[in-house]
Amino acid sequence: MTTLSPYDSMSPVTQAAYRAKAAAADLAPLPRAEKDDALLAIADALEVRTSEIVAANAKDIARAREAGTSETVIDRLTLTPERVRAIASDVRDVVALPDPVGEVVRARPSRTASTCARSVSRSASSGSSTRPARTSRSTPPPSA
Questions:
Q1: Is 121 within 8 Å of 128 (Cβ atoms)?
Q2: pLDDT tens, 74-110?
Q3: Which 8-state DSSP code applies to residue 10?
Q4: How does pLDDT run across 82-92, given as a tens digit for each residue?
Q5: Tens digit of pLDDT for each residue in 112-125?
Q6: pTM, entire model
Q7: In what order do the strands lie in the sheet with 133-136?
Q8: Cα Rg for the chain, rounded, in angstroms?
Q9: Residue 106 in 3-state DSSP?
Q10: Where is 120: in which H helix or E strand?
Q11: Which among 3, 79, 102, 95 is positioned nearest to 44, based on CA atoms?
């Protein structure tokens, strides 16, 4: 007997999005150096596998054209070696940014002294929202 999971009825893109969300929850608490190493490995892999990426993208673009996708969208989806190198460069640029986990994104002086910091909750892998987590609050959270 085959057991179906909720992911079985989702598109591959939606499945990838859920996997990315779960991975974010696993990666967020890692030390900065490990996250930077992972980003640099991604950038290196993009550069090393540029020809494979461009070839696979060409097949996708051909299917998109056959399906009647507009040329404007085709242009935005088309990957060239230059575009892949630019993506790899942008990933490397992310390494130079400060780590946002734990960063205070909103602090309001008020009677409740509410502060909001960036974090990824462990519940992310279960499909719940990964909004910034409140680090302190004197009033209960609003009901959803």
A1: yes
A2: 999 999 999 999 999 999 999 999 988 877 767 666 6
A3: S
A4: 999 999 999 99
A5: 655 565 655 544 44
A6: 0.63
A7: 104-107, 115-117, 133-136
A8: 20
A9: strand
A10: none
A11: 95
